Amino acid sequence: MQKIIYALLIAGSLSGCFFNEITDSETVVLLEDVIYVSSNDIRLLGRLYSLEGTASDHGFEFSKDETFSAPEVVSLGEKKTVGLFFSEFNLLEEKTAYYYRAFVISGNNKFYSDIRSISTFEGSVNTVSSLYGESGDQIEIIGTNFTTEMSILFGETTAVVKSRLGGYKLKIEVPGHQTDYRVPVYANFDGRKVLVDTFEYKTGKWTKLSALPFGRMTNAAVRYNGNSASVYLGAFSPSEKNGDIYNYDFTANSWGAPTALADEEYFVEGAFYTPNGFFGAGATRIIEGFSGFIYTLTDRFGKLESDGTITDLGSTPVSGVKPLAFYVDQDLIVLGGLNSGEAIWRYADSEWSYLGQLPFAVNTTVPNTYYNGSIYLFNTEDNTVWMYDLSTLEFTKFTDLSMNVQSGASYFLSGKFLIFGLFPFQSAMYQLNLETGEVLIKNNFEGMASLSTDIQFTEGGDLYVIRGASSTESTEFWKYQPFTFKQ
Length: 487
What we know:
The protein is mainly β. The chain has three domains: 14-119, Sandwich (Immunoglobulin-like); 124-201, Sandwich (Immunoglobulin-like), CATH 2.60.40.10; 205-481, Neuraminidase, CATH 2.120.10.80. The strands form eleven sheets. Strands 19, 20, 21, 22, 23 and 24 form a six-stranded antiparallel beta sheet that branches. A hairpin with a 2-residue loop joins strand 31 and strand 32 (331-335).
């Protein structure tokens, strides 16, 4: 007579099992161990301890209820000898309790092991190898208890899975970009959608604009008037100063007819300037000598009004070419400049006051900006970025940069990001997060890297650059949209 004997497994090995006394005619099937369990995958060991004849089938059954009313069956087929058997089942649901047992069919009888219970785990994502890049890039998703059909979505677009490794790693291909350059990344665990992080697509669109109404102009100033930018001061050559104001209309995307400056005594180049029209210092003449540039400096100080007239404000203690200037809370802050030392000045209530010294030299050709109470300055000596807190008048190092910072760059503030690049003979553009210090690489400049940036102004988070070369009078006019796709 055949009968089923149920065994209790202790410590996951046969030596830990205790049985009733059995005879050679008894068929005994045991559960040995759970080798692995994840979100929807389980691997089991069973043992056919004794067998009368040949087993026509053996395997495991799974059920959500202890009665096994509608079990999932893993059939391993015929078994002629006693010993271990192994199976993997990957159709379970995550974070669900299951009952399971081993079985063997011998003759007309079906024998079972004891019944046990187990709960599957919930899948999760721990890390994403990169959250910045382009469509077609391959990135790795690392986590635990990934389901067999787990997928990754960028917004509403499902990424192509290139490979799966166990239940903890996916390699996926970044899908084509959508409307927004920042999209949420979701992990879809068989219908359970979990927000992982945000992916940012590499952006930066360059558009070449119409020809300029003037030849190559350097060391100019820029004032903003509503929906237009006014380019004034500067020079066409060492002997020819710019005596006109050129207005670019952002709405019409065109240059208006130039208007003349009122007084030739203000025909200077390399002056400091602010968006609301303050300007001063600079040089009445800049020529290149054998040992460098020779400057004929001026201390004139004035303000270009919105109607094109100039208000004379006397003289300024600032002495140099291309100092930085910021108009903050009705105070004018001026820093550094070429041939001017490293002084910091404030103009408030019609009076100039000295605030101290810079820790390194700065000028308008090196990236800088004002953001959230501080002035950010790039140091070309050690490729660092420093913060000058206007409330404490103290300098603090903000971050280290991996690229070589040089003079002659293009830069502008767009939201919380300082966009910079176009160093001499380079096409690279970068994005510095002024809250985190993170630097990302943008799409490259699409024009000639051999040209240099002569004039730049911004509108609505976009950059307008006028570029030229010393060997030619020709210039190029470009618009750069930092968060727009190329196509």
